[in-house]
Structure to design on (472 residues):
């Protein structure tokens, strides 16, 4: 099976799974915004953002290094995965264990502090699940991860429904979050046993090699943390809890959408890392350019379409959060930039330029923190959204320049122009169909975009046939 088909089939499987998970996620968000209201959902958002702050620290770049290491020729997958899993478990216990203590020093109500303590268990499961996903990405068997995620979401929505029906309150909502994450992790762990035999492994020679390679990524992630999550934390400290709820409702849409580029970039990483290690530059160029074209093909209509669909989307998710559509119209540009940024961020690791990228993350962290502290007290969630766009743009352009200057490979912008034209036609259709059913608008917009792109030869019959053929 060609690289295009292998990646495409895994991507299609994940798109189906992510679509199901997204629908369930939107249902859960809709249930919570209606049940908790702006203030309660603001507290929920604060709990999740606070733990995400520590959850990102736990990462330490171990997931990316795992995918890269087991993709190298003659890699001992069992040893690598077991050692990295053990490292991840220890780092999770340390950093997530600190979170319930640190939150005591913040001026949050008691219910938020208790919520952080309970939900720490959810983030422990999430961070262990994430590192195991690398095993499936290397073997291009993301269908297993997709099944586990859907099962976890079903546990989440059913337990959330029971909490709301019994009017148990916010803390029991957080318990339902824990149950969903636990179900997801346990199923992923069981599926992983087909590919690797995981055990707690304390081979300090391997640890030393892994840490030597991962420390620049770990520092980069720490800097990345400032611009990626400081917005919600600073918003919770400087503005009322209702503002956090409005921003959080829109940001949830961003978080759902950005799982897709991370998923796709993860599928491409083993191919890029393997080609770079073998110095197969022709394959490296082919994979990178096709991946860039695909990301652009999705990111452009997503950004333009959401300008017209933000209001009906947020009316579905959080009907009483009046400013959420305008916040989403800003955040969607950050989301589209993240599509391309994930690809180049992963490629930086594939070509061993993470030390260079570390300084970029430091610079962006300083600029973003200053921007959040200046603009959030004045402009609230609009200031947070604007700085998020600026931060993602700086990171993505920097990563792209590092990759292109190092490899001497530059992406083609032919499809970029064709996608803009197709998205422009799609925007006209959405303008004249304003007020129609949201799901009808999405279906029509997608059909118009891809038909125009096909007519412009942005997508060809050969490409479609290659993706659809399943031939070993």
């Amino acid at each position: 099976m060609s690289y295009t088909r292998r990646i495409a089939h895994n991507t299609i499987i994940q798109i189906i799974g992510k679509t199901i998970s997204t629908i369930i996620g939107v249902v859960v968000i809709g249930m919570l915004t209606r049940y908790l209201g702006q203030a309660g959902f603001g507290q929920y958002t604060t709990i999740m953002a606070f733990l995400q702050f520590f959850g990102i620290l736990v990462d330490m770049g171990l997931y990316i290094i795992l995918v890269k290491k087991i993709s190298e020729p003659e890699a001992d997958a069992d040893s690598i995965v077991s050692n990295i899993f053990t490292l991840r478990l220890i780092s999770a216990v340390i950093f997530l264990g600190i979170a319930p203590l640190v939150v005591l020093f913040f001026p949050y109500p008691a219910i938020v502090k208790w919520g952080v303590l309970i939900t720490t268990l959810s983030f422990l499961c999430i961070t262990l699940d994430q590192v195991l996903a690398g095993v499936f990405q290397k073997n291009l068997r993301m269908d297993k991860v997709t099944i586990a995620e859907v099962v976890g979401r079903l546990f989440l929505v059913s337990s959330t429904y029971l909490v709301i029906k019994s009017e148990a309150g916010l803390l029991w909502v957080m318990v339902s979050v824990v149950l969903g994450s636990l179900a997801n992790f346990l199923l992923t762990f069981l599926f992983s046993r087909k590919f690797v035999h995981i055990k707690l492994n304390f081979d300090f020679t391997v640890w030393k090699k892994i840490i030597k390679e991962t420390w620049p990524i770990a520092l980069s992630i720490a800097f990345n943390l400032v611009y990626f999550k400081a917005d919600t934390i600073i918003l919770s400290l400087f503005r009322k809890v209702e503002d956090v709820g409005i921003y959080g409702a829109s940001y949830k849409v961003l978080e759902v959408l950005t799982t897709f580029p991370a998923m796709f970039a993860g599928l491409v990483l083993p191919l890029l890392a393997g080609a770079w290690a073998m110095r197969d530059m022709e394959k490296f160029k082919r994979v990178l350019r096709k991946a860039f074209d695909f990301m652009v093909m999705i990111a452009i209509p997503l950004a333009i379409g959401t300008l017209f669909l933000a209001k009906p989307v947020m009316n579905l998710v959080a009907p009483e959060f009046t400013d959420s559509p305008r916040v989403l119209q800003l955040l969607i540009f950050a989301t589209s930039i993240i599509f391309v940024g994930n690809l180049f961020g992963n490629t930086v690791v594939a070509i061993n330029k993470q030390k260079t990228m570390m300084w970029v993350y430091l610079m962006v962290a300083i600029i973003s923190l200053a921007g959040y502290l200046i603009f959030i007290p004045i402009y609230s969630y609009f200031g947070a959204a604007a700085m998020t766009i600026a931060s993602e743009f700086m990171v993505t352009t920097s990563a792209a320049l590092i990759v292109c200057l190092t490899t001497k490979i530059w992406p083609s912008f032919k499809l970029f122009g064709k996608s803009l034209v197709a998205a422009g036609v799609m925007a006209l259709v959405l303008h004249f169909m304003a007020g129609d059913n949201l799901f009808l608008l999405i279906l029509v917009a997608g059909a118009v975009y891809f038909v125009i792109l096909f007519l412009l030869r942005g997508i060809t019959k050969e490409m479609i046939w290659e993706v659809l053929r399943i031939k070993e």
User: Anything to note?
Assistant: The longest helix spans residues 3-59. Residues 191 and 360 are 37 Å apart (CA to CA).
